Amino acid sequence: MNQESLRLLIRAKIQNGHLPHNKIPRVWGSPIDGETCDACDAILAKEQLLMEGTTLAGGLPIQFHVQCFQIWDEERRPA
Q: I need a surface site. Which of 25, 43, 53, 79 has the fewest CB within 10 A?
């Protein structure tokens, strides 16, 4: 998926509530295999790094590719 398409998908998921618009207070990275990125819905491969965190409300962990996390962090902030 190209960068602009990914940005539009993440923006839409923030607007429809599928991704949080609030800051994630604690984020950690770890290698993982077979999990799904909550932003782009693609499977994280073994050689990729998973960015994971939980929302302030204590919801389920949110998982991202590093690039998806960076775009989400930019898009969630008010313009």
A: 79
**Nearest to 54, CA basis, from 13, 24, 18:** 24
**Domain segments of the chain: what residues?**
3-76
Cβ proximity of 31 and 46 under 8 Å: yes
Mapped onto helix, strand or coil, the DSSP state of residue 70 is helix
Contact 63, 44 (CB under 8 A): yes
pTM > 0.85? yes
